[in-house]
Structure formats: structure tokens, C-alpha cells
Amino acid sequence: MAANVERLERAWAEPGALITAFATVDHKKIGVRYLTTATVFFVLAGLEAMVMRTQLAEPNGRLLSPEAYNQLFSMHGITMIFLFVTPMLSGFGNYLVPLQIGARDMAFPRMNAFGYWVFLAAGLFIYSSLLIGKAPDNGWFNYAPLSSNAQGTNIDFYGLGLIFLGISTTAGAVNFIVTIFRLRAPGMSLNRIPLFCWAVLATSFSIVFAVPSLTADCLLLELSRKWGFHFFEKATGGDPLLWQHLFWIFGHPDVYIIFLPAVGIVSSIVPVFSRRPMAAYHLVALATMATGFLGFGVWVHHMFAVGLPQVTMTFFAAASMAIAIPSGIQIFAWLATIIGGRPVIRTPFLFVVGFIVVFVIGGLSGVMFAVIPFDQQVTDSYFVVAHFHYVLFGGAVFPIFAGVHYWLPKITGRMFSERAGVASFWLVFVGFNLTFFPMHIAGLLGMPRRVYTYPDHMGWDVLNLLSTIGGFVLAAGILVILANVLWSVRWGPPAGDDPWDGNTLEWATTSPPPPYNFPVIPVVRSADPNWDREDRSADARRLEHGELVLADGHETVSTGEVDAELERVLRMPTDSPWPLALALSLTVLFVGLIASSNLIAWVGVGLVLASLAAWHYPWTPHEEELA
Amino acid sequence: MGATLTLAAFGLAGCGGGQSTLVVRSDASGRIDSLWWVMLVGSAIVVAVVLALLALGLLRRRGTPAEERKQRRPGTTFVAIAGVAIPSVVLVALFALTVDALPKTSPNIDKTKLSVDVVGRQWFWDVSYPADGARTANEIHIPVGVPVDVRVTSKDVIHSLWVPELNRKVDAIPGRTNHVVFDARTAGIYRGQCAEFCGLQHAHMALYVVAEPRADFERWLRRTAAPAPPPANADLERGQQVLLGSACEYCHRIAGTNASGTVGPDLTHLATRMTLGAATILNGRGNLAGWILDPQHIKPGNKMPGTALTGPDLQSLLDYLESLR
Questions:
Q1: Nearest-CA residue of chain A relative to B101?
Q2: Binary contact (B18, A139; C-beta < 8 A)
């Protein structure tokens, strides 16, 4: 046994720290990079929100100019959606998917590294606009023709930045799909895939079909802005609604791209802390995929006020109501699991319970938007701001906080402070509701969204003051979480390999896991493999006789898509500098485009081609089979 | 000034002339309001049931980390009934309510005899009654109890006309004309505001709908359709010369004079209006002077530059503008 592990250690030994920093393809390192980078963007978006809430604390606020406010609310939305929630969940996916399916890496490790570098570069690209005071100022929705005719480079940072970022998101999604379909442990048939992985799979399919619509939209926008096209001008044969259709064909599925992995986290945590397997597992897996699918049929409910025919609107109203059903399935499956179990309440579970309460409220106000006349009354009011914070902060950020506490012991090997965890939960829960519940009422009282200030005597003053106070309470809660995480990384007590008695395979290995994840590829016979003690003992026995140890290099197994029968041993690519080189080359290209410098842009194109060639060049005899 | 006082009583002073979706002043907004209350009660029931189930699960029997796990019933039947069957029935009923409510809030322009054109501009509302040749800004007058076809479009970017106490909102989109019907049950002043983000001064793009008895409305329409009264004395004459001799006329129109700009709001009967700067400030001599001299202080980023005037010129100009009744 020791000899086998020693061979594995040698095969997966890392080069020096410097090379690892720039060339690693380890999905766990990349996952942690996603998580930390996204957290930095989360803090930035939070600071933007606090400045806005300060401005709105009283009527006729004079802290911010309208231009500053517009940049802040635009950057807040862009950051939360594109640079925090999606990459954060991508970080969880990167770290956890290979571990949960018993693989040793993602299917395309180098593309995985590339995806992270592009995310980082695109994030810095977009944020560089704030440093020069030219941040996007037309909202995350960026409607034409306001955007297509705007002067300055503000909107180009949006258009080009999102095209750039889309490369990363798409590469990540393709990688997840192939990984989950082909790299599962032998025996992990479709009906045994952990629900978090189902969620990542559904999300990845949504990304592959939704992001091209956003990329196309941004491309049309940049062609209009930089090269004299007129896609969004009625006078020249275009149509301003073209932007909205393409945007929401991406934008509504994006809600589920954000939401599905988050509920996957919830479905991971609920059974573990309820001390029983997940209720109605099959229905939940189906509901996850159904949500991803139906999510493509509801975009027009964002456009009920633009003057579309009634028949069109009723179709989308029906679809928008139907999508409530998969969410209902999941909520009642969690409730059934909790009721039928013996719950143990710890910080991760507290955040999940908070999520259920908040998400039910957000889901119900969401159904209201399918009721066309009511939608037309409250759309673009603070009622919408309240609703989507209930579903996005409540529906995604609460689960993210739950996931951070749940998996932190696995990632760092250390435990956080439970007392600080409970305190942070109550601050976040109270602060969140105090911030966003009054916004429902402000919206019903007629307060439009995206206003940098508002008059007094409208009945909005007290509500806005409450929201601002709530915002600061929420921020305090988030600070406690950050402090708790940092404390635990440095001083936390050792957590052990499986502090929660988890049901999935990441708990079957050490905390933190070794570079090769598992000393032996596990063989799986249920949807809760880590609760099958006999199977895990069988793994240990296989390690002793060297069966499925695969220590001749970076090796893992590929299995069939449906039944996960063992197919063959795969040799995985190792560290490479070319993903970073390609990401940097793309950065040069996009810098050239934003600076309107043909020279820099063409240099960027050249560098991209050179990096691609170098990436694919067979530097060592083995590389051919690795490509 | 009568109108301004009315507004002070109704609107800016907050005595009921706000823009709440929960204040019903027409059949359409009443229908939407009742949809809201039905959904609120339904939602409260769902939240109560979920909280009760959650409390049941959390409080009934706690576990301990060391406790042995048990294989328990999968719970599929419960989830199928509570998560699929019951929501399906409720959603079908809600869909029926939606389809039923649609005609009440959608424009049936065949039944309207009066129409008004509203054009969204950065950042004001251009309002005209094409059949009568009347034109004003940031104020829509309608007769009580008469359905009015409001035809909404935009000259620049997308705006959205929203007067919640009268009806749902409708987007103002360049190159398209959308319709919404205003049919006020009672006389009053109802505030509205642009609801689609339209740039720097989206926050200051409000308007008032004045619903008044038919005879009052007809009188207002006739007066508004007439050209501006000619200057009645030398001071007003001088004020008009100040206006025509400055940059004002490039952007503003005053019917009956050479000022025929279309970039800014029509000023033909400015003195009858309740507010300035799209309901940013009340209309009055002091506010008007402040607006002319430094509109960028009051509404930063709006498209009107400040005008430097000598004291006497300003006073004459104000006299003239106040005579535009």
C-alpha cells in the first residue's frame, strides 16, 4: 500500500512553487483561485452597494453625482452576476466535481487553467474602467439605443469585457459537461450522480446555449459603436428590441445558471445534516434538468411592457408559471428530507434553512411576474429589486455561504468557529431581510429602480432608510464570515477528513486532498457512496493489491455516459505555461480593441495564434496523446 | 398659480397625489390591485405552510452528529403531491386570472374618442393633442370618466410611461408607438415617472396627469391650443426680446413667436404648468429664475445650458414667461 502511494506521490509531484503558480492544472488549486478571486469581486460589489445605499438613505441625497451613481449600480450588477456568483460557483464546481465523481482532475485540465486566467483577465479588464472613471454606466442590462449611441469607452468595457469573459465561462461549461459525462467513478451511473454535479451539468448546458446569445448581442453592439453598423436603430432598419431579445435569451437562463449550482449546494448539505439520504432524489435531479430547459422559454416576461402582442405574452406567462414547478419539487424535497430526518443544526445548515425561507418568498414574488398586468405595473420598480435580491442573494449567496462553511474544512483541513458562524448567520439573515423586504413596499408605492435619488413626501423615505440600515447590518455579517474564514485558515483546529459524516466522495479522501485526489479510483454502488462503508473498505483493499491505483503518470479512468462502466485509463495533461500565455495574448487583443489601436489588436491576434500553436506542439513524445 | 397650489395640495406635499400602485383611481389599476391582494394572500398561505413544515422538521426531533443514520422512506409521493400536483392546480387558476385580467388593462383603442401623444425625451415628456393642435410638456390633462388613448413613443432612447394610479406602464420606444388607456374615475392629480433607465437624469423625469371635469378639460385644451398671448406692455415686449435674442429659441417653441425649437419642452403656456424640469421643482418665479441661470445645479447633466443674464433682462424675461398663460 505504502509503495503504491509513494509511486502516486512521485507521479503527481509538483514542480517548484513558481512554476506551479503560473502553470498548474490541478483542479483544486484552480478551484480555490476561482473562489478567492470571486470573493474579492464580491467585496468590491458590496462596497459599491454600500455607497449606493448611503446615497439613498435620505431623499435628495447629494453624496453622488448621477454619473457616479449610474457607474456604481452598473458595476454592482455586472460584478455580482458575472464576476462573483458565476465564477464563485464555478470555483465550487472546479474543486468539487472531480472529487464528488471520484476522478483525479477535470477532463481538460489545461482548458480549465485557461478558463481561470481568462476570468481573471476579463475581470481586471472590466475593473480597469473604474480606475479611469469610465466604468459602464448603463446597467448590467445595457439597453440599446442608450448603449449603442453613448459616447466614451464606458460601454465598450461592457461589450468587449463580456465577450472576453464569455470565453472563460464557455470553456468551463464544456469542461464540466465532458467531465461529468465521462470521468465518473466506475459504478456511478446517471441515477447515482451527486445532486451538486447534476446542478453543475444543467448549468453548463444552459451556459453553452445561453452565452452565445450574449456574445452575439455584445458583438452587434460593438459593431454598431465602433464600426458604424446600426443594428439597434429603427431609422436605419434596425430595432432597439433586438438587443433586449438577445440579451434576455441569455439573461433569463442566466438566472438559472446562477441559481442551479446554488441549489445543488443546498441538496448536498440538506441530507448530510438531516442524517438521511435525500428525499425524492430522482425527482430533484429531473427538476434540475427541467429548470435548465424551461429557463430558455421564459425570457419575454422581462419585456411585457414593450408592447408585444397578447398571444405572445400569454405563452411566455404560462411558461414562466410552469418553471415554478421544478422549484416547488426541490423545496418540498428538502422539507421532506428534513422532516424525515434527524436534523443537526450547524452553520452550513443554518444558512440552508435561511435560504429556504428567503427563496420561498423570492420564488412567490417571481411567480407574480408571470401575471402580465401585475408585471406591467411593477416591472422596473423597486419591487423587482426586492424580488431578484430574494432569489439571487437569497437563492444563490445564502447557499454560497452555506457551501463555504461546509467545504472549508475539506479545502483547508481546518475548522471555522461555530459561534462566529452562528453569529454571522443571524447578522446576514436579519440584515438581508431588513435591506430587501422594504423594497417590495417601496416598489408598490411607485418607486422606480435605477434612480440616483428620489423626492421626499413620496412615502419612500422611511423604507429607504431601513434598507440602508439593513445593508450595513448585512455588511457586518459578511465581515464576520470573512474574518471567520481567515481565522480558520490560520488558526482553526484540524477538521479531520470527514467532519460532517458526508455522503459524497470528497469526504472519502484527506483534508485537504492530495494532488491525485484518491489513492485508488473508488467504485460506487449508490447515490451516497461515502455512507457505504463496505465499498470504501473495498477501495482500501484494492489499494493494497494495486488495483485501479493508476500510478504511472497523471492517470484517471473514463467510464460510460449512462452506466459508468469502466472503459479505459486516461493519461491526463500536466502543468503547462500555455493556458496563461493564451489568456495574456487575448488580453493584448482586447486591450487593442478598447484602445481602438489596430496595431495592438493585430499583435494580440498574432500572439493568440502563436500561443495556440505552442499549446498544441508535441513538446514531449507523450503530448500527442494528451492533446 | 392656482394650478401650482393645487399641486402643492395634491402632489409634492404628499396628501394622496403620489404614485402608489395600491391607490386605485381607475378600473384598470383596480384590476391590477385586486390581482396583487389575491396573490399576496395566496403567497402568505404558502409561506406559512413552508415555515410550519420547516419548524416541524427542525423542532420535532433533533439528531446528534454521532447518531447512526437510518435509511428512511424516499418521500417521493409527498414531493409529487406538494411540489407538483398542488402547485399545478394553483398555477392554472392563476393563469386563468391573468388571461381574464388582460383585456381590462390592455388598450382597447376602438372605444376611445380622445387621444394624446406622449413622446419621451431625455429628460422630459413632450405632450400633444394632435386633433386640437395643443402642445405642452410634463403634464397630461384628461377628462374624468372618458377613456383616453395615450400614444407613447420616444425620440431618443427607451423610456417608460408609468402613472400607477391610472394604469400599468408602457414603454416609449423610438420607432414604435405603444398605447395605454387612461380612464380616471375621479378628478385629481396623479403623479407618473419614467420607469425605464434612460441615462443621467432618469431620476428626474416625472410628470403629472390632471384629471378634471369635461368642461374644465375642454377649456384647458382650447387655451393650450391657442398661440401665446402677445406681450401686453413694454416690459413684456422686452422680456420676449431677451428670449428671442438669446439661445432659448434654438431649443424651445413658443407658438405665435419665432421661437420654434423642438429640442426642449414647449413653452407656449409655461405659466400654466405646475412644475419645471419634468416635475423636478415647482413652477414659480424664484425657481424659474434659478432654472434659467443654472439648470445644471438643479438637474445635473440635463441638456439645458445655463444662461448668463443681467438683472433687468432676467426680470423682464421672468415677467414674460409668467405671462405665458
A1: A373
A2: no
Residues 231-250 of A with CB under 8 A from B: 233-235, 239-241
Tell me the three cell numbers of residue A578: 500555455
A72, A337, A374: best to mutate for the B interface, most B CBs within 10 A: A374
CA–CA separation, A269 and A349 (whole Å): 7
> Coil, strand, or helix at residue A456?
coil
Distance CA(B300)–CA(B312), nearest Å, equals: 27
Q: Which residues of B touch A139 (CB under 8 A)?
A: 197
**Helix locations, A237-346, DSSP H:** 240-274, 281-294, 310-322, 324-339
Q: What is the per-residue pLDDT for B300?
A: 95
CB contact under 8 A, A325 and B87: yes
| Selected residues 445-484 of chain A with any CB under 8 Å from a CB in chain B | 445-446, 448-459
pLDDT above 90: percentage of residues in chain A: 93
Are B131 and B224 within 8 A, CB to CB?
A: no
SS3 label, residue B177: coil
CB contact under 8 A, A377 and B20: no
pTM reported for the whole predicted model: 0.95
A484, pLDDT greater than 80 = yes
A580: CB partners within 8 A, 6+ apart = A22, A23, A113, A114, A117
With bands split at pLDDT 50, 70 and 90, how would you rate the model's confidence at B75? confident
**A166 CB-near residues (< 8 Å, 6+ apart):** A211, A214, A215, A218
A407 touches chain B (CB under 8 A): no
Nearest CA among A134, A189, A190, A133 for reference residue A160: A134
Three-state DSSP state, B159: strand
Given strand B178-182, what is the order of strands in its sheet?
A: B134-137, B124-129, B114-121, B148-154, B178-182
Q: Copy the grid coordinates of residue A558.
A: 473514463
What distance in Å separates the CA atoms of residue B272 and residue B291, rounded to the nearest whole number?
17
Q: Please, are residues A106 and A185 in contact by the beta-carbon 8 Å criterion?
A: no
Q: What is the pLDDT of residues A250-281, one digit of tens each?
A: 999 999 999 999 999 999 999 999 999 999 99
CB within 8 Å: A65 and B300: yes
Widest pairwise Cα distance in chain A = 79
DSSP state, residue A398: H
Distances (CA, A) of A398 to A85, A364, A366, A391, A477: 11, 18, 18, 10, 12
Phi-psi region of B235 (alpha: psi -120 to 50; beta: other; left: phi over 0): alpha
Work out the end-to-end distance of chain A between its first and last CA atoms, rounded to an integer number of angstroms.
Answer: 32
The pLDDT confidence band at residue B62, using thresholds 50, 70 and 90, is confident
Task: Give the three-class secondary structure for B128.
Answer: strand
The ipTM assigned to this model is: 0.94
Q: Which of the 8 DSSP states describes residue B270? A: G
Q: Classify the phi-psi angles of B277: left when phi > 0, otherwise alpha if psi is within -120 to 50, otherwise beta.
A: left
Report yes or no: A609 and A558 within 8 Å, Cβ to Cβ: no
pLDDT of A624: 46
pLDDT of A216 over the 70 cut: yes
- In tens, the pLDDT along B227-283 reads 999 999 999 999 999 999 998 999 999 999 999 999 999 999 999 999 999 999 999
Is residue B142 a contact partner of residue B182, using CB atoms and an 8 Å limit? yes
Q: Which of chain A's residues have a Cβ under 8 Å away from the Cβ of B71?
A: 276-277
Which residues between 57 and 76 in chain A have a beta carbon less than 8 angstroms from any beta carbon of chain B?
Answer: 65-67, 70
Contact B253, B259 (CB under 8 A): yes
- Residue B225's pLDDT band, with cuts at 50, 70 and 90, is very high
Q: Is A552 on the interface with B (CB under 8 A)?
A: no
B76–chain A Cβ distance below 8 A for any pair: yes
B294, B288 Cβ separation under 8 angstroms: no
